[in-house]
Design brief:
The complex is a heterodimer.
Chain A (H helix, E strand, L loop, with lengths): L1 H16 L13 E11 L4 E11 L2 E11 L4 E12 L2 E11 L4 E7 L3 E7 L11 H6 L8 H4 L3 H5 L3 E4 L2 E4 L5 E10 L2 E12 L8 E10 L3 E12 L3 E11 L11 E13 L3 E10 L3 E13 L2 E11 L6 E11 L5 E9 L4 E11 L3 E13 L6 E14 L3 E12 L4 E17 L4 E16 L2 E16 L2 E4 L2 E14 L5 E15 L2 E16 L2 E18 L3 E10 L4 E12 L4 E10 L4 E13 L2 E8 L4 E8 L1
Antiparallel strand pairs in A: 1-2, 1-8, 1-9, 2-3, 3-4, 4-5, 5-6, 6-7, 8-10, 9-10, 10-11, 12-13, 13-14, 14-15, 15-16, 16-17, 17-18, 18-19, 19-20, 20-21, 21-22, 22-23, 23-24, 24-25, 25-26, 26-27, 27-29, 28-29, 29-30, 30-31, 31-32, 32-33, 33-34, 34-35, 35-36, 36-37, 37-38
Chain B lengths: L4 H17 L15 E13 L2 E7 L2 E2 L5 E11 L3 E8 L5 E4 L3 E3 L6 E11 L8 E9 L2 E10 L6
Parallel strand pairs in B: 3-10
Antiparallel strand pairs in B: 1-2, 1-4, 4-8, 5-6, 5-7, 5-9, 9-10
Classes of the chains: A mainly beta, B mainly beta.
Amino acid sequence: MRGGALGLSGWIAAGTLLTVSPARPAAPKLLVVAGEVLVYSYDHSQVYGEKVSFEALGYKIASCYFKLDVLSRRALAYGGVTLAKDDERIEADELDLSLEGMTGTLVRYGETIETIPLRAEAAPAGGAVNAEAAAAGGASTAPAGVFDAITPDAIRRSFISFSARTIELTPNFEVVGTGVTLYLEGLESMGFKRFRLSDGIGPRRNGFTLNRVWYNKTQGLIGRASYAVERANKVSSLTQLNYEERSFLKNNYGIARQVDLLSSTTLTFGDSLRAGFAGNYNSSSQWNVQSWLGKTWSPKLTTQFDFAYNKPVNYRGEAWLGLQSQLSAGRWGNLAVQGRYELHGQGTASLNYGASFLNHLSLNLQSYYARVKIGGSQDYSELFTGGLNLAYASRLFNLATDYFLNYDLFGRQVLSQPQLRIGLNPIPLYGGLLQLSLNNVALYNQLGRDDLVERSFSDNAVLSLGTLPVEIARSFRLTVNLAAEQFLEREGRNFTTGGFIVNAVRELGRGLTLEVFYSLSSRRRTRGWLIEGTTSQDLSLVGRAALGDAVNAWVSFSYDAKNAQMRQSFADASVRIIRNWSVHTILNYDFFLKKLNNVDLYVVREAGRLQFRLVWRSLSRQFLVEFAPR
Amino acid sequence: MRSRPGLRTALAAGLAVGAVACISFDIRRFPDPENALASFCVCKRVESEGELLKPAEEKAEFGAADERILAFVGVRNVVRNVRLRWKWYDPARALARDTGEVEVNPEAKSLEIVTAYDVLTREAGTTGVGAWTVVLFIDGRLAARRGFSISGEDGS
């Protein structure tokens, strides 16, 4: 039953993506295209047309073919293009339109490529011009790449596509069709007199919008509404109201209804001063408000003041005043400071500084102080942490020293931890066939609590030697890596570890490979006169198949060579079927328990900006239908 | 006996599918555009595929050593005489080659697809290095445009 519910949710999600809301007839239009053939791909936000006519740049324009790419905001009319205005008539082979700013370039393919720049409500700027003049005037022939992908076949292959009698493009780049037929996988589905084919990508509309009213048997009645105010470079405000009514549901054990109100407003006063207000209210009696003022003193220095009040459920509200500032001082580094104070005595402060010197040295400094209440009590925890990192990197080696301090002022506990890291950059040997590297980390810990001081230190050194893949025979490569590690510490739990990994790859044919990994690792520890230790081995076999876009799969088997038993098997396979549909599965088999641990099965339709998925998960016994934007 | 809602739902769904299966729908296909252009690309050579040709080594960048550059076209649903014309423009945007009108299917047979190509022949070397354009006209109207470049280096 759960799977069914989730499946229903999936379809609802799909419903929200394809919001069926009538477009406002009074909305201004950037372009209205009519044509004998007009098709729109929802997957790719692209239009293709034939024998089209439209008005732009003050002309009535007709052409044999038409392409529009909403995302790049470009359109191309080509094949017998005619522009008419009063008695004026211009013919060309191509008209490339930039919809932002509404400029165009007419192109004729004669003895030369002749380009004529056009601007909105203006005659051709200077008539025919040559290439250099066009470039100097800002007009350019658009690269064909944007439009090459727009073909009738590509739109027909879309998961969701539409045909329409006319297609309108609003200034917000919203696409609206009239006389619309919806096609799913190229098959006719539904017809609409007028239909919003795609959400706009421009700014929000001002005013009230009822975003969604929905009912389902698990969530009840759901309503979403919003109110937006947009004034370019002055005000940006959005208030959203979410309402859920569950009181009439048969099996409702939770709250009867819930209301969420979210509001955010940003005011811009010139280039250097901005202010904002945000408030959230939830019907479970929690709410918060925040206001802020941001000032840009110069490109290098910014400051922000803020005030916030937060009222959590069952706790007293807190009012915080804050200040944060950032200074970018170029070669002198970057400094950020932040401080917040709460009216009941709580506070936090932080300072961060980072700089690079002399090409090879870098310095980072962080410190943080916090005094905050412990739960609902009257006690405060007080904490100070600090960190300093100084690093030197050269071609041969890198050296870094860190210092970390954690001072718990409430628990009277101080942790002090300096460390030193040194590493030899990989050294190529025998013409790069072998690579040698060495790293060492030395760590000192001092923990002080009241009069008690605990000290510890450790040192860990790792030496590794690896080969590049060596071609042993045709289609057969071998890689070997050796590593040794020595760990020393004050408590005497010292150990030495050594091991190696062998990786052999055999190419069996086009796109088929077989890989074998063998690893052996041994750890030895001395305790007084006793030497104890463990050895582990692992042998894995991996088969891979990569046959273009059609098949991409691998399967692995893991074998415990020490105990002579099979362990696990994993498989991951993706197979393309038809029309951008593919099947993908992930399997895991446990040889020890002799059972299939997990099977995930996906049927996926790649649809440009969307992905449609049918998912089966054996572990949770879930069947999901997902319509995910990408 | 306990109620089996899952079974009932499945049975109802099965009956519904059965009932729907008895109803025939007039499923209209996606609109058929008149645009007969199936493909237009720039390539180094063509290969035979039965009676047709197919482009091989499609690319947009050619090297100084490439003496032949092909513009391949596939036109489908040809039921009448069709006129094709290729025009090649050099980096100075001047017409470098014009095939004139080439008649295809003068007997007006019904052909599912017609493939053809034109060759730009150039001397190996750095002549004509830069951005080129090739355009295709079908029946006197611009049907496609492709850009490609020739570099001064041996790109093969």
